[in-house]
Amino acid sequence: MASRAATTLMASRQERSHLNRVVVRAGAVAAWVATAIYLVAGVFTGATSLLIEAVGPLIAASIMTVQIVAGREDGGLALFSSGIVVAVWYSLFGESGTIVPAAVALVLIGSLSMLFVTNHRRVVAGTVAAILFWLPFIWDLTTDEKVVLGSVMALGFAMTHFVFSSIQTTTVAINTRYQMLFEDSPT
Question: Which of 35, 46, 122, 157 is the most buried (most CB within 10 A)?
Answer without folding.
Answer: 157
